[in-house]
Amino acid sequence: MAAITIPAAEDIVGPTPGQRLRKRIIGHRGVMIGAVILAIIVLMALLAPLLAPHDPYTQNLGNRIVPPVWTDGGSWVHPLGTDGLGRDYLSRLMYGAQISLFIGFATALISGVIGTVMGVAAGYFGGRVDLVVTFLITCRLSMPVILVSLAVVALVGSSLTVVVMVLGVLLWDRYAVVMRSATMQVRSLDYVAAASAAGCSTWRILVSEILPNVMNPLIVVATLEVAHAVLLEAALSFLGLGVQPPLPSWGLMISEGKDYLLFEAWLITIPGICLFALLLAINLLGDGVRDVTAPENRS
Amino acid sequence: MAALLEVENLRVDIPLGAGDLHAVRGISFQVDRGETLCIVGESGCGKSLTSLSLMDLLPPKARRSADRLAFDGIDLAKVAPSAMSDIRGNRMAMIFQEPMTSLNPAYTIGNQLEEALLRHRNVSGREARERAVHLLEKVGITGAASRLGQYPHQLSGGLRQRVMIAMALMCGPELILADEPTTALDVTIQAQILHLMIELQKEFGMGMILITHDLGIVARVADKVAVMYAGQIVESGTVNEVFENPMHPYTQGLLRCIPVPGKTRRGEPLGSIPGIVPSLIGEMKGCAFANRCPYTFEACLTTDVPLFETGSNPNAGRGYRCLLSEQQCIENAKEVA
Amino acid sequence: MLIYTLKRLVVALLVALTISLISFGLLYLSGDPATTIAGESANQAAIEAIREQYGFNRPLYEQYFAWVGRALQGDFGTSFYFKVPVTDLIFERLPVTLGLGLSAIAFAIVLSIPLGVLAARYPNSIVDRLALTISVMGQAMPSFWFALLLIMVFSFMYPLLPSSGSETWVHFIMPTVVLGYYATPAIMRLTRTGMLEVLGADYIRTARAKGLRPRVVLFKHALRNAIIPVVSLSAVQLGFMLGGSIVVETIFALHGTGYLAWESIRRYDLPTVQAILLVFSLIYIVLTFLADLLNAWLDPRIRVG
User: Fold this and answer.
1) ipTM
2) Which residues from C are below 8 Å from B118, CB to CB?
3) Is C141 exposed, middle or buried (0-12, 13-18, 19+ CB in 10 A)?
4) Residue ranges of the ABC transporter domain (chain B) (predicted)?
5) Any idea what the CATH number is for the domain that residue A171 is in?
């Protein structure tokens, strides 16, 4: 008899936040494309010892610059050909993925810890702490990362560890900026005031009230900083002051290939495409996570 | 002669994922020169969308349709966007609810006042300036000439709303649409602004549509009233008829919610209407007010209720949307009072 | 406005002071600078002589103040490698880098602001998709790789543009595109989100209610407000381009300060590296300072407080 249709309970309650989040992730093309590409590259890196057809360091000067399989003179022995020292290009690419991913994640971890601590402290305590942190951020932004890291790597000596440490110590600025404003927002919310009125210790409030609520922006920044670190490592290695030969860093491979730019362009395009794909995947994921967790930011 | 604004069966639909939201469901009214129509209703009943749709300022997703939408004989439904923008701000002007955010923070008051006139009239910058000063004085702003160089953030909310009114008057419009123009202001300022608007409306002989949820304002300024509920007009008529003889149970309920000096006893609870407004998504069957109405009977749930015309003068637009007999409605009203 | 300016000025000076400490600190990063200069094979006497000559045996703070004191007078010492005053070396090459930076930021602005505005005006349209694609690609494209691709196509496959040198403006085309494209995503995104936000503002509805033409609403009323943060971002991006110029100038052999930085770093020419770090940072500090002032001037809420 009810003529005004009463909506069913599900229509009012709707899907749970978890269900909705999952639906948004699956429905987000950027996230899906990014995740698939990243998964392929991660698998390539992890399975390199099993799948790589050759040793990435074995030189064969009699077999230099073999072209990839799809061009004249190519063969399935070296699907992506060999480089100027006769090393198998595919194997080097696979091991190179390990380097890029390691540098990206290790750097993001170091800089993430530094930046988050600074940002959360500035945002939560405000006042002088905030002044000092803001000042440090300004100083850090004033110095070109690439110049400082080139100089430091040159002076201290270049190795994988040095590159990770230098980038880790330099790339904390975006974390600090974002965490600072996110913390300020959360701090002004009622439940934080309630926790502090209830007599919770500062430490407890920071860990159990603030941190969980600034997780979303933190994940977004961390993702984008992984890409930033990968890009900088490649640039440093390209300039000859990053990872040193014979390690197969993609940036280094492009640098080594540039002498063959004129006739053997694939030596540059192949590692470049890998680098581009990795950066694209991480950026798509980062942007996607931002869209999915805060859908109101993008119409 | 035809009325200044004629609206027949106006509908506003907003497509949503779950089906269309029918925000305005076929409303009709007329406004003449020198006449004030008040549209009253709770928030979400579609009154703001009605005014925005008349100005063709609906949000991009919303769709408007009407059997007739004529301003001074011009069919607004068929007019090209550029011709519509020639009318907008010129012959038809609007005053918004939020004076704090409705002025552009980057430009001076003078600039924002003058640009309306410069857009629609072939006047010099000096003439526009003089007109702006004249109108600022008219809306009761002292030191008008020096205000022109100020930015919105330097003015209080009341002053900004006066500026908004002056801005609407720049081109001498024939019709003013005012969407809750005093809601965001302090009570004392509200009265001043309202008073000012009535005065100006009478002086310039403009038609005015005043949208409000405040029945006190309606009683003081309206010539005609349209009571909206869930996207429909449930009762209309002259202000005297509606206030003295409310026919629709919703109007009766609304009127019970305002205290009347000398009649409402101290400590006596004011009336309220229990229940919630029905969802406007999808088709609705029966009377929209049925779930909150004290007189609901079987037919209310199944029959779409038309607007019954009544009253001695067919042009006064007296009507109500209720299945109860006229006699029954009048008796209910007495009982309530 | 005056107090605002003074506050910014004090911060800028403090930042400059901090950077000068860091620049000075570079000298000691490798351990003993005298050994670095003399080279691995030098004997003890030669190292000792260098230590004496450059004053490395004096207390650190004395060395710092002496260095800053001379730097303030425009004297950054003599290049270890080129054996000429570092100041001359830098100022001879700075015009190339500044020219490249300015043309790159101009390229980025001309590309990204109109696209950002149109993308916001017509969300989810083809223009919006194009803008999104350009910005996603731009973020993921390593500039050195992009540069090599351009050289491959425009210098070798179709020999239209020179791949190296800095003699004529034609030499600057590819470097400008590479460096400018790097700044495009950020500027475009900020323009787009800023415009989206502003277009939903009440005062835009007011402007439309006045019957103003769509073009006037979009550019006078909306862009004017959305552009304010874009101005400071552009200044910041111009500052970042100084760093980017190191990569780009190296690839295209443009003889600017960025190329000089790379040369000096490879040759352990410490006075030059120190000076370039300080000069680049100072330029960035000045740029952001000017951007802050411009920002305040553009926003009446700050200007007319």
Assistant:
1) 0.87
2) none
3) buried
4) 5-255
5) 1.10.3720.10
